[in-house]
Amino acid sequence: MKIVCASSVLHGETAFATLGDVTILPEERITRNELLDAEVLITRSKTPITRALLENTAVRFIGCAVAGTDHVDKTYLDSTDIAWCHAPGCNANSVAEYIVAALLVEADQHGLALEELALGVVGVGHIGTRVAEKAMAMGVTVLQNDPPRKAAGDDANGTFQPLEDVLAVADLISMHVPLTDTGPHATRDMANHRFFEAMKPGAFFLNAARGEIMDSDALLTALEHGIVRQAVLDVWENEPAIRKDVLDAVDIGTPHIAGYSYEGRLNGTRMVYEELCHYLEVDPVWLDRDMPDDAPQEERVVDAQCRSDQETLAAMVSAAYPILDDDRRFRAGASVDPVAMAKHFVHSRRTYPARREFAANRFQLLHASESLLTMAWELGFQIAE
Description:
Elements: E1 2-6, H1 12-16, E2 21-25, H2 32-35, E3 40-43, H3 51-54, E4 61-64, H4 74-78, E5 83-85, H5 92-109, E6 118-122, H6 126-137, E7 141-145, H7 147-151, H8 163-169, E8 172-175, H9 193-197, E9 203-207, H10 216-224, E10 228-233, H11 244-249, E11 252-253, H12 262-280, E12 300-303, H13 309-320, H14 323-332, H15 338-350, E13 362-366, H16 370-379, E14 382-383
Parallel strand pairs: 1-2, 1-3, 3-4, 4-5, 6-7, 6-8, 8-9, 9-10, 10-11, 12-13, 13-14
Helix pairs in contact: 5-6, 5-13, 13-16
């Protein structure tokens, strides 16, 4: 059985070689010709799964090792015998940790106290739920908006609020909705002029969902007029040929890597591998044997004396994930030329250094308060006795 696997799938060759003959290709080189005699396609989000790619090929199973599905033509697949799967929630913790890192940087740079802030989480699925939990663990007040879940009756505790109420009150808005074009809750261009005008003046805007849920010109206008104080963007309109003027305008800008932790990518591979085994009716034999040793990275010592809990937590998070390094690397190669910018965007993702999640980091905290220890533990850090 021939399996075509994108090179962006972590440990894809090792995992799927247990099931067939694997051909590894960059996502941009996965074409119909490459799939003519392939029975399985394993990829991530930059391969459009369409009729043009698949028609009259041998493909009978597609695995997308990512959470999102806006690159998948579901209507076409439903009209065929091709089975397919994705990996919902695989990178939820990774994206949530990205938001935590961004929040702490913004709080430090702009003199904000976490316990005085209200964070609006728009879209409370796998990722939004994790973001809300981590923000509350840090003492941030969380306001949640998710009309589809509310309409489905999934709001037993009455936690979901109307979007206009959240926008009017929240000091920060974090977007975690899927990209949808139809239905009563379509999200394409959701963050438009009307959206930003409804925000609390001087609020922060964070988008780690999809670039097309945001109108870039509307964001620039909101930033210019102070409606939005600062923005953090990991996703952009028209990726990979994104606009440099938008990157220049935001406080933190990264090349769609919020979900790119080692663990998040490994989860995606594992989930798709297990689905393919189920489809083939065979027992899994690849059991994450390429996962790094479960032992954490080297133990770091952080002294909380003469520091607030927030300052100490910021130091820990920065040591585990220095998000500003991602921002600096991305800006260093940015270009106003769309072709050059697209190449830089793709290169930045392809060469992104391994990033471990908080749980792989062990700290010895000196002079730590009970509240700090609780926050660190709830964020997932390992704390030495």
